[in-house]
Predict the structure.
Amino acid sequence: MIKFKHPHLEAEFEKLDYRLQVQAYALVGFLQHKFGVDLVVTSCIRMEDMTSVHYYLCGLDFRESEYTAEMKESIKMFCNHFIYDENRPRKKALFHHANRSGTGQHFHFQVFPSSDTTRIKK
Ligand SMILES: [Zn+2]
């Protein structure tokens, strides 16, 4: 299931770009089926930074600390079947990074705000 670090995040999740919600539901289905684990959402909408996809309801962060190295590799493999931007293949739908403070490793999952569609590659 999809769990939320803070209760208000559930309402934010429901406001996200629907492509991103669909991707998150696909990912949690994969995680449940393959490993029996949940997805814990830690951040959705952030209005303080217009350069972030979170501002455009197109970014979602989730916790990585409860996953094994094998699970993390599977998550990356699964999520990067989603194409972020066909014109910029180096931009990924999912990446793993620290907060700007340099702490708090997490996964960041995103869809491209300037597109209406998301494609899935082989
Ligand atoms: Zn993020």
